Structures are given as C-alpha cells and as structure tokens.
C-alpha cells in the first residue's frame, strides 16, 4: 500500500502515544498549579500542547486519521494557525505525493479480483494511473467493446489499515474532551467508521454512482459517468474528459469561475431532493467542466444517504437566523444535538460563527473569496474555553453534511465565485421559505 504507513505497529504506536502524552502534561500542570500558576493559564497550556500533539500525529498518518481530520475541519478554525498549520501542510504533502502502486501489484490485484484472464476484459490497459487517492488509484483503459473506461483499483490492505486507525482513534475520547468540551467524539468516530466502511465497498459505490447517472442522464447542467462493471475492490466506469475544477480555479476567467461555482452549489443542493443522496467528497479533483459547459462529477465512494432530502430543520434554522431570532436558533440547535445538555452558548458568539454559513443565503447575490473566508475564520480562532466553536457538538447524522458544507465553502472561495446562491437554497432546501407548519420551531 503506497500511501499509508506500512507497519501497523508504527501506526498504533503513534496513536497510542497521544493519551500518554496527555497524562504527562496533566501531571506537569498539577505541579505548576501547586507552584502558584493560575488554573486557567495551566489549562490553556495543557490544551495548546494537546492540540499540537493531536494535529502532529494526525498529520503524520493518513487513512482514518485523515478522514477524522476532514470531519473535524470546522474545529480547526477554533485553534491557532501555528498549531494546525503544520498539520494541514503535512496532509497536503501526503495527498500530493501519493506514489502509485507498481504495475506488477496492479496486475496481481486485477488477477485476484477478475481472474487470470483479466486482460480479456480490456482491449488496452494503461499501467500508469491517472489519479491516486487515499484508498485506491484510477487507470485509463479501453473496455472489450471499445468504450474508454476508468478502472478504479483499491490498494491491498487499505481497508484493514483504515479501520485499524479508527480502533486506535476511539481510545482518544478524553483527549478530544479536553480540547473540545462540547463535542461527543465517540459518536463522531462511530459515524465516520461506518461511512469509511462504506467507502471501502466498491459495489456500494457503484450502486450510488449508477443512481446519480440515471437521474442526471440528459440533464442540462450535470453529467455522471455510468458504471460498467464492479466488485468489492474494482470499479469500472465510463471515461469522462473535461477541465478539472482545479484548473478552472487557477486559470479560468471570472465568467467560467462564476458558472462552475453556481453549478457546483446547485449539484450539492439538488442531489438529496433528486437522488436521495448527497455527494460527500466535494474536492475539486472530483469535478470537471465539460466542453458543453456541463459539470461532470466523479467519485461516489462517500455519499450521505438522505431519502427524504435535506432535513427541513436545516432550512428552518437558516431562515430564522436571517430573521435575527437567535434565541430560537439556539433552541433549535439544542433540539438537533448541536449543543449538548449543560453547555451554555453566547448567542452573539454563535451568530458570528454561523455567519459564513448563512450569509450567502441572506442576499440575492454573493461573492465568495479567500479574503472573506480568512476574515470569518479569524473571528473564532482562539483557545479560550469560551470560544463558541469549542462548545459545539457535531451530531452523527450531520457529520457528512458538515463535511460537504465546510469543504464546499472552501472550493467556492478558491473559485472566487459570484452568483445567486440564495435561489438554489430557496429551490432545493425545504423549510427555508416561510411555512406555517414550522411555527412551533420558532416558539420552542
């Protein structure tokens, strides 16, 4: 396995060292308090060192640790840049430097999964991968009937390594409890582990991708390559050319970036209503602008199954926030589990934190930018116990929704898109427009 640390013992040792380090820092802190330092100063010192060690170890690993880091990206904003900066840099380096599997290993996997006559399925097969990710890589080939195809191959042992990470991470509850007192980390880890187990099953991914392909077949805005063949570790789909969204970000005109950003948002908001699923990995590498202007979408390993579409309370709370009724917003967030019992929240601090997620829905047209995002993140970046981000919980049912929204805002800010995003929310998110049936929510 090329991009996961190979030795399970080494991975376990790095993760297991975290609670030991925390215990040592706590003992050291007690000594300082006896020596006259205030409890608050000592607590902040312990939290800072704990955060440094957590993000250092998460950055050195990939797999499950990377998935956890992605899910907790919202909480990174509550920590100083000097702590999470090296973590993000390490993850970027890991993601950019995923070395491909040797051709011989690829052939062995294909023979094991498709049989010794695996070459009979293809007219040609390119041994050099076109893309590599955390659990697999993609090769371009020509199917036996002449169609160009993408062949996704899972790394041998990737599943065991990923799930092993989560078994280790589950032991770190006390550590995260000290850093993020409002977070139920055990529930988050359990949800992530279930979703990662789904990502490892290419048959399940094939089912999801086929459903998207059927729904968007002939759609004026979107194209999804259909599935041709699949088993648990091999996925063969139609090939799709196009300009990667990353290239639109770096070299597109303003008109091209506005167009791409609007379609990107439309796809994420309309999919739960149209397909009953949310694409949960909105990385620029998973999107293409096709020559006909459509948005092409790849990689359906991570999807959030939402048969009823977006939860109406999501739209309701967004509308109530825009109306300025923070008391009802706090009550609604408590009901949904974002604020756990016994945790008190400063409504003004909560308003400042939620603004980046809600502001684009309050105006007819909105411009996303890196500068705007930095300003929003700066408003909630500190380690004080009163920091509202550290008081919030991430309910298990919202783990993937949060991941999509946080990552999606990042992509839109990279694009610098200006568009009528509010129209998409009005059209696709239930509860956002006035509904007499949800008056009870505003009075709880």
Describe this structure as you would to a colleague:
The protein has helices at residues 8-34, 39-60, 63-71, 73-76, 81-96, 103-114, 158-169, 173-179, 185-199, 202-215, 245-251, 254-275, 312-322, 326-336, 347-358, 370-378, 388-391, 399-415, 421-428, 439-443, and strands spanning 122-125, 131-132, 136-143, 148-154, 222-223, 227-230, 234-238, 243-244, 277-279, 287-289, 295-297, 303-305, 366-367, 418-419. The strands form four sheets. Strands 1, 2, 3, 4, 6 and 7 form a six-stranded antiparallel sheet that branches. A four-stranded mixed sheet has the order 5-11-10-8. The chain has a two-stranded antiparallel sheet with strand order 9-12. Strand 2 and strand 3 form a beta hairpin. Mean pLDDT is 78; it is low at 1-43, 91-97 and 438-444. It contains 20 helices and 14 strands. The longest helix has 27 residues, at 8-34. By secondary structure, the protein is of the alpha+beta class.
Strand content: 5-15%
What structural category do the secondary elements indicate? alpha+beta
Helix content: 40-55%
Distance between the termini: 52 Å
Oligomer: single chain
**Tally of DSSP β-strands:** 14
- Judging from the principal axes of the Cα atoms, what is the shape? globular
Rg result: 23 Å
Q: What's the pLDDT, averaged over the residues?
A: 78
Largest sheet: 6 strands, antiparallel
Tally of contiguous helical segments:
20
Low-confidence stretches: 1-43, 91-97, 438-444
List the helices and strands and how they pair.
Blueprint: H1 8-34, H2 39-60, H3 63-71, H4 73-76, H5 81-96, H6 103-114, E1 122-125, E2 131-132, E3 136-143, E4 148-154, H7 158-169, H8 173-179, H9 185-199, H10 202-215, E5 222-223, E6 227-230, E7 234-238, E8 243-244, H11 245-251, H12 254-275, E9 277-279, E10 287-289, E11 295-297, E12 303-305, H13 312-322, H14 326-336, H15 347-358, E13 366-367, H16 370-378, H17 388-391, H18 399-415, E14 418-419, H19 421-428, H20 439-443
Parallel strand pairs: 5-11
Antiparallel strand pairs: 1-3, 2-3, 3-4, 4-7, 6-7, 8-10, 9-12, 10-11, 13-14
């Amino acid at each position: 396995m090329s991009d996961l640390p190979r030795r399970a013992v080494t991975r376990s040792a790095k993760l297991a060292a975290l609670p030991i380090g925390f215990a040592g820092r706590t003992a050291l802190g007690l000594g300082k308090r006896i020596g006259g330092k205030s409890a608050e100063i000592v607590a902040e010192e312990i939290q800072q060192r704990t955060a440094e060690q957590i993000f250092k170890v998460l950055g050195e690993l990939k797999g499950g640790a990377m998935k956890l880091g992605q899910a907790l990206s919202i909480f990174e904003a509550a920590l100083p840049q000097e702590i999470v900066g090296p973590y993000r840099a390490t993850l970027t380096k890991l993601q950019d430097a995923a070395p491909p599997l040797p051709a011989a290993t690829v052939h062995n996997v294909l023979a094991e999964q498709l049989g010794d006559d695996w070459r009979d399925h293809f007219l040609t097969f390119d041994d050099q991968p076109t893309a590599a990710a955390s659990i697999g890589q993609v090769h371009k080939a020509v199917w036996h009937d002449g169609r160009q195809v993408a062949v996704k191959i899972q790394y041998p042992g990737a599943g065991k390594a990923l799930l092993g990470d989560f078994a280790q991470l589950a032991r770190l509850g006390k550590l995260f409890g000290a850093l993020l007192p409002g977070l139920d980390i055990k529930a988050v880890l359990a949800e992530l582990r279930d979703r990662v187990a789904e990502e490892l099953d290419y048959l399940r991914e094939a089912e999801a991708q086929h459903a998207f392909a059927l729904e968007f077949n002939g759609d004026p805005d979107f194209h999804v390559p259909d599935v041709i063949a699949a088993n648990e570790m091999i996925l063969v789909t139609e090939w799709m050319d196009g300009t990667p969204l990353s290239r639109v970000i770096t070299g597109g005109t303003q008109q091209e970036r506005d167009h791409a950003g609007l379609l990107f948002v439309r796809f994420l908001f309309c999919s739960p209503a149209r397909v009953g699923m949310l694409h949960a990995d909105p990385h620029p590498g998973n999107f293409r602008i096709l020559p006909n202007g459509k948005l092409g979408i790849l990689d359906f390993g991570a999807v959030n199954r939402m048969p009823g579409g977006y939860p109406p309370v999501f739209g309701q709370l967004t509308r109530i926030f825009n109306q300025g009724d923070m008391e009802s917003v706090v009550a609604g967030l408590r009901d949904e589990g974002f604020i756990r019992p016994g945790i008190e929240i400063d409504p003004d601090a909560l308003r400042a934190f939620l603004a980046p997620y809600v502001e684009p829905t309050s105006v007819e047209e909105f411009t996303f930018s890196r500068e705007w995002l930095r300003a929003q993140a700066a408003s909630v970046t500190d380690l004080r116990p009163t920091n509202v981000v550290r008081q919030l919980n991430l309910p298990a049912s919202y783990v993937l929704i949060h991941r999509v929204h946080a990552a999606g805002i990042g992509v839109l800010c990279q694009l610098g898109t200006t568009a009528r995003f509010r129209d998409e929310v009005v059209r696709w998110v239930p509860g956002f427009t006035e509904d007499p049936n949800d008056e009870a929510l505003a009075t709880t």
